[in-house]
Structures are given as C-alpha cells and as structure tokens.
Write a structure and sequence with these properties.
With 377 residues, this protein is an alpha/beta fold. The protein folds into 2 domains: 3-270, Spore Coat Polysaccharide Biosynthesis Protein SpsA, Chain A; 288-371, 3 Solenoid (UDP N-Acetylglucosamine Acyltransferase, domain 1). The protein has helices at 17-20, 38-46, 61-67, 91-97, 104-110, 112-117, 136-146, 203-216, 221-229, 250-259, 263-270; strands at residues 3-8, 29-30, 34-35, 51-55, 81-85, 122-127, 130-132, 150-158, 169-173, 179-184, 191-202, 235-240, 244-246, 288-289, 294-296, 299-300, 305-306, 309-311, 314-315, 320-321, 326-328, 331-332, 337-338, 343-345, 347-349, 354-355, 360-362, 369-371. Strand 4, helix 3 (61-67) and strand 5 form a beta-alpha-beta unit. The N and C termini lie far apart (54 Å).
Length: 377
C-alpha cells in the first residue's frame, strides 16, 4: 500500500490567537527547537511517505521559512517531496463567493488538484494542533487488513491533564474496531477516547465524497461527509497509546510544554523506536553557562547565555538570562533577552522579546503571562 500526506496548517488558528497572530498553528514553536508541524510531518516520513502537501490559508511565511525545500525531512525530491498548497481563489471567487479554505472541507476541495494528481492508494490527513508520535505504518497495515474506506486514529485523554473543548470528536467504537457514531465532546471528566486528528482515507473514496460535497454545497467535513457515510461505508478506528497533547488554548500550550520536563514523557514522545522527530537544523554555538548560573530540570536549546537561575523552564535558541535573574516555570522563545535581576514565573515570551532590568512578571499555570513577538517590557 502506498500513501501520500496532507497536513492542515491553519484549521485551528483561532483557538490560540496569542500565538497565531503572525504565524500558522503549524509553525508554533514547541519544546525548544521544534514547530508543531514537525510531529505529523515526521510521522509521515517515518512511515516512508515521500509526497506531502501542506494546506495553508494565511500567515504562512514563517511556515515556508521553516520547511524550506524539505531537506531536513528528506523531502527535497524531484518527484514527490513536500509542497505548500495555498488556497486557490480566483478573482471571481474572491469578489463574489467569498469561499476560501477556512474549514477542513473547503481546504480539501481547494486541494483537489493535488489529490487528483496523486497515484497513491491512500491519503493520510493530519492536523497541527496535536502533539504525538504515531506509528503510521502500523495504521496503514491495520487499514489494509480491514479493507477500510476510512480509518481514524484515536487516543485516550485524561481531562485532569489535558483540557478538551467542543472541537474534540468523541467516537463510538464497537468490539471489532468499527466506528458507529461520532459526537462532539460535551464535558465528560476522567479518561475520554477522542479522535487524534489523524485519518487514513482511500484516495478514490475521498475523491468520490468530495465530488458529492461540491455538488450538494456541503460545508462540514464531519457532519456532511463522515456522518452521512458512517453507517454504509467502512469506518474503523486505530488506537494510539503514546504521548498526546492538544493545543487548543494558551493554557494547553503551556501545560503540554511543561509535561516535557518529565523524563518519561520526553522519552515517550521523542525516543519511540524507529520514530525520530525531525526539524529544521541550524548550526548554532553551544549554550554558555556563567560560573554563577544555576539550572534545574529545564530544556535548554543551543546558543543561549545563562548567567542567572533557570528552573522548570524551556529556553529556545539564542535566549539570554541576565545576572541575578530567576526564570521559573516559564517558556522563553527564540532570542528573548532578559536584563539583570528579573523575576519571571509562569511567563511565555514570543520571539525577540526584551525584558529590562528589575522587571517582575508573574502568571499562573492556568493563565500564563504572555508577551507578544518583538515586545519590550
């Protein structure tokens, strides 16, 4: 069985407006050196997929800069490789219809040209709001063995650790693994089985349902496509039991990041057998620790300068922590500069932030204090 990939870069931008004002959900920085697109893209590459389309809508300049020609994922190829697929909107469409790729179904319809040019047996559809490391080769084998039309990757979420919203889809799965119903999350507490926003679909089947959706003017991928065909066609679930996080708010981004300070969580996500997470590689100098520096339980990227105290925090490339400064339970993105005698607790700084001497900023894990890109405090 051969497969191609489609990644939705913008679908969930509205859930984290603080971080997506100048970038897509796909290019949100994560874990010191990665972007959110690295997780679905790496899963596809690890499964031997050599053709990937990235469906975008707007704000994708930083995404293009990150992906480049795809060489860091071994996707710089003459045939196949990775392609950015911006929305196809003619002057007529833009002026009169207003139809764009703001929804999942519209994005797929706009990508019909890419889908029709594929010769692969199945397409793997993935969102960028989830952080996981799925063995897609195993999912493909399960899909083929069952003769499925559509396979949904599911996972179990503990609501005490990961918040869910009504965008989360809760499937009902019978003993044979067949999906019999899909409902929106309605506030259940405890362990809940949800869709991991990764699907496998037969290419010819997808072409057929998209043609039907266009002819009937359908709008919703779930309500108008999946639920309409759920009883008649072969919809199955494949369960994933590794690290899973969903970024659906600034709080959830903070919590998902802080979970990586636990050794077992990091191993579960980044060190799964034969499933590395790839990202854009930069040649940077090692981090320099001053004699008075003190660092505990933190993730520190390259090219940082640490002269103060860092505890339970994540520092991206090029961050400077000044003398007498204390950074606790915080996320400092690329090229953040802190002066001397600064106090930060539960703070998220975007790129190129400057915090002057003597400042004291404090948030809470349920409401982290966010400083926007390029802001000076």
């Amino acid at each position: 069985m051969t497969a191609a990939g489609l990644i939705f870069a913008n679908i969930h931008d509205a859930t984290v407006p603080e971080l997506t004002g100048r970038r897509t959900m796909a290019s949100i920085p994560f874990a010191g050196r990665y972007r959110l697109i690295d997780f679905p893209l790496s899963s596809m590459v690890n499964a031997g997929i050599a053709k990937v389309g990235v469906l975008t809508h707007d704000n994708y300049r930083s995404l293009i800069d990150h992906i480049g020609n795809g060489k860091d994922w071994d996707l710089a190829r003459r045939n196949g490789g990775i392609k950015i697929l911006p929305p196809f909107i003619t002057a007529y469409d833009s002026a009169l219809s207003g139809r764009d790729s703001a929804t999942r179904l519209d994005a797929l319809i706009n990508a019909r040209n890419f889908i029709d040019r594929c010769n692969e047996d199945v397409l793997i559809l993935a969102d960028c709001d989830v952080i996981c490391n799925v063995d897609l080769q195993a999912v493909m084998e399960s899909h083929q063995a069952r003769g499925a039309d559509f396979t949904m990757v599911t996972t179990t979420v503990d609501t005490a650790v990961q918040t869910l919203d009504n965008h989360a889809e809760v499937p009902t799965v019978n003993a044979d693994g067949r999906v019999t119903d899909i409902a929106e999350y309605s506030g259940e507490e405890g362990k809940v089985t949800v869709c991991a926003d990764i699907w496998l679909v037969n290419r010819t089947y997808l072409q057929r349902v998209l043609t039907e959706a266009i002819s009937h003017g359908h709008k919703s991928f779930y309500k108008d496509v999946i639920l309409r065909h759920l009883s008649a066609d072969k919809f199955y679930a494949h369960h994933y039991d590794g690290f899973f996080g969903r970024v659906n708010s600034l709080e959830s981004y903070f919590r998902c990041s802080m979970r990586l300070l636990d050794h077992d969580a990091r191993v579960n996500l980044f060190y799964r057998r034969s499933q590395p997470i790839f990202t854009k590689v930069r040649n940077s100098a090692p981090t320099r620790y001053a004699p008075e520096a003190e660092v505990k339980n933190s993730l520190i990227a390259d090219d940082c300068i640490i002269e103060g105290k860092v505890e339970n925090s994540i520092l991206f490339r090029g961050v400077k922590v000044g003398k007498g400064t204390t950074v606790k339970n915080s996320i400092l993105m690329q090229d953040t500069l802190t002066g001397e005698n600064v106090r930060l607790s539960c703070v998220i700084t975007d790129k190129n932030v400057v915090i002057k001497d003597g400042r004291e900023l404090c948030g809470h894990e349920t409401m982290p204090f966010y400083i926007g890109k390029g802001v000076m405090v």
